[in-house]
Amino acid sequence: MHDPIPPPSASLIKATQPLASVLALRTLPFHAHEILPAFCFYEFVNSFVSPYVSTRLFPQTYPQLSRKKKINWNIHFVSMIQSCFINSAALWVIFADRERRSMDATQRVWGYTGASGMVQGFAAGYFAWDLMASIKDVDVHGWGALIHAASALVVTSLGFRPFVNYYGINFILYELSTPFLNIHWFMDKVGMTGTRAQLINGITLLATFGGSRLVWGVYQSVNMYRDIWHAYSLRGEDPVPPWLAVAYVASNTVLNVLNFYWFGRMVTTVKKRFDKPEAESAKKKR
């Protein structure tokens, strides 16, 4: 299936070709017109759209936040937009791309379609921006967020080799839980902590996070490891370089470990939101 977006200009392809050659990312120049605009768009949303919209929708909340909390708010605002968009794009390609669906084990490792490359391009643009933001404000986001952004960018970028581009789209669906995570965070900041709406959203968050990242994510990882091993063991004309397999598997494994760690923290956090009122009520009865 072809990339539905018109191809980049010859000048942009020529400008990005040296970098693509150095990194051995052959299809990167053909999606530079999706990577660069995505990076710029999310920076624009973070720096201008979020402060403007948030001030007008929540005039009693956003302007009163500290610098660090505003940075966090803006990051969640960007994440909300990105996750809704990239989930829709990935699901569309998964269901509409017949060429992708017909791939065998070897093609799932080395195969490529323009539509999949498009999703990878938009995702790479976001993760590049996310990495920049994580480095810039590591004191706010923490080292876990920085490691996640770096690992996600590595995994996404290797899709332009192309390498396991097929699975790259499947892993995009990790983001299915992200809108509910952002909603939960915003509810805390606008005085909706412990409400029935937050409880419903919290349950949905845990269900989608567990389903998309822990169940679906681990299942796809196991399938990917199997296909990589199959391609590596063939040792034909185009074998999988050991360093490439190790780099991708290591990055993917880091993401899976972080997902289990964050799921545990989410369970604890959501539980605290609703344990506290019960504890206070018990004290009053005494």
Automatic annotation (TrEMBL):
It is found in: Membrane. The chain crosses the membrane at residues 75-95, 110-129, 166-187, 199-219, 243-263. The keyword Transmembrane applies. It comes from the Eukaryota. GO terms for cellular component: endoplasmic reticulum; membrane. GO terms for biological process: lipid homeostasis. Keywords: Membrane, Transmembrane, Transmembrane helix. Pfam families: TRAM_LAG1_CLN8. It is a multi-pass membrane protein. Residues 68-275 form the TLC domain. PANTHER family: CT120 PROTEIN (PTHR13439), TOPOISOMERASE I DAMAGE AFFECTED PROTEIN 4 (PTHR13439:SF0). This is TLC domain-containing protein. It comes from Heterodermia speciosa. The lineage of its organism: Eukaryota, Fungi, Dikarya, Ascomycota, Pezizomycotina.
